Queue: 4 jobs
Job 1
Amino acid sequence: MNTATTNATTNAPAATHPIPAPSGDISASFLGPVDLTGLDGMFSAEEKALALRVRGFVDEHIRPNIGRWYDQAVFPREIVPELGRLGVLGMHLHGYGCAGRTAVEYGLAAQELEAGDSGLRTFVSVQGSLAMSAIHKHGSEEQKSQWLPRMATGEAIGCFGLTEPNAGSDPASMTTTARQAPGGDWVLTGTKRWIGLATLADVAVIWAQTGAHGDGRGVRGFVVPTDTPGFHAEAIGQKLSMRASVQCQITLDEVRLPAEAILPADSAIGLKGPFQCLNEARYGIIWGVMGAARDSFNAVLDYTMGRTQFGTPLAGFQLTQAKLADMAVAINTGYLLAHQIGRTKDATPASVSPAMISTGKLDNCRVAIGIAREAREMLGGNGITLDYSPLRHANNLESVRTYEGTDEVHQLTIGRHLTGLGAFTRTEG
């Protein structure tokens, strides 16, 4: 990576992440045989080069090892600095050492990472779209300068604490509290669950109810160094999904923070603060799951072309071709949806509504998990081994489909947009 220059507007290093010309022929579709509709032509040479660079990283660092990592439930901590050098940590953010790439470029990187494994794409999402975005959108200049440059390189890892054991789809019911002590310090108490990266993290963005304490303005975010006394994270074990990833429970036992630990921007007051970050993560999922779907398709296409039964390659049977055709059409549709949302996000960010993000997350997740399951079935008994990716992708996608909003949450978000009526209900006690 070239020596960074100084960004005059932020007084922080401005990252330069040159993208070398990829090796090989890019005149054919960079998405491979699944590209039935000329998807390749929708992307610039620079965008495709970025995608191929990330693909090369996945081929070198992830594919040779992912079966072992998944089997042993190991997250490869050693690749985090490599992800920083690749320029994908907070890559859609500007200044403070971040790459400043477009939404479409971020999406293309996400789908290449998830073609390797959802857990590795999730790391990039939690780091960049959640923790870094929260600080970038809502933080003070001091918070941004302290954390973002180190997070962009992977020197520091972040997590994002919103979900609780009894507050998943309904974060407004969170019970974690922040009270302001005499002298101005904040004291956090509560529990967070299903928090990615928490045992690895150097900093946590924790959302808590301030209630009548402090300014009395409801949910607020706090930047919490994880070595603060009273902060404890424990990894959740015995998972059947996202095994090459880390999800945790956080316990906050009278965690005392200075007054300046709060995210000060008005944009962070109430649930709109974390929801803005969640929509960044959901956007990355819209693209990411298409990488898992494409990888599952490629795996079963290669398998059926090479395996002969009854004297004929499996790919020569009508039922096989019908399934491959349906998969390819669904993947093309998913990429078109992701591309439309990404271009809109780049051109007019304010016009990207929650319903638009929910449309992409809902449908692309459903499509991807269906393709991964179908591909596993077509692989026969061999498909249950880690020699082939589809069942691993399908298991991971059970988590991806659930986090950052279940199907039902996205259906109700779209329903509210269509009807003007909110179907989210709360029982008053």
Job 2
Amino acid sequence: MEKNNSLVRAINKNVRTSPRKLALVCNFIKGKKADVALRDLEFSRKRIAKDVSKTVKSAISNAENNYQYDIDNLFVKEAYVGKSLVMKRFRPRAKGRASPIKKPFSRITIVLEEKVEKKEKKVSK
């Protein structure tokens, strides 16, 4: 059985933070092995790293259960962020006025790829 597409993705649709803050954490894990990315997210000082970690774990379990990939060969190929809905609230101000407050939501997409290292045969002389 040959696998044509070695990409696996997981999407977390409503994350309660701005995309700008979330993009910092996603750029931090791009190109790393999946287990190294999880370790780095665990020790990150950003609050949102927990949600990114949940999404990476979801992508890993998708790869393992749906496509029977080896977890040790998974890399974070892409990690990107998009905008989602924005809650609009109002704060009362002086003289009967009101000022708007925007509470943005984000969408995380994690794409994992399986890289299989080919072992080269040693040539004996």
Job 3
Amino acid sequence: MPVTATETVTDIDAEWERVAIDCPYDSTTIAASFLTVRVEMP
């Protein structure tokens, strides 16, 4: 099932970036979850 998430991209150096994805959920109704992330080059 697709999720709505917010990504934050931070430059580490000229070659690398750090990508953080904030995907909030309600832990009272969802006991556990996981995501599969696909990374593509532009």
Job 4
Amino acid sequence: MFSFFRKKAVQYFSEEEKQIITSAIKAAERSTSGEVRVYIESKCRFVNALDRAVEVFNKLEMYKTSQQNGVLVYVAVKDRQLAIYGDKGIHEKVGDVFWNTSVNKMLSHFNTENYVDGIANVVKDIGEALQSYFPYDIKTDINELPDDVVFGK
């Protein structure tokens, strides 16, 4: 009834740029049972972007992967905040150092306004880490989560 009051999700990337990120996600998942999602929004609702990433991770039900190997790349464009959150299964394997290194790599791209490359490259790195610990098995692997880029408000 009052849907005209709701804000529409903002599209921060062109169709071509979204396709580059989606292709990176699909390529990363081709060799692993792990799952990667990318969530982009305007402003972070929390002071700490990692807290918001955890909230989004849960909202997207990424915890439902069978091996707890989902990873969320979170970016708040206007607030210039980002975080990467990995579920328990992958976090126990790679630890904080991997996530912090990945965030710093993404930041180095962002600092030169190469946002799409920063996201695509970090997704590739995450895919390689997931492959090391959760290799793809043609007999059992299913795509548990969508591969599209999710845009919040």
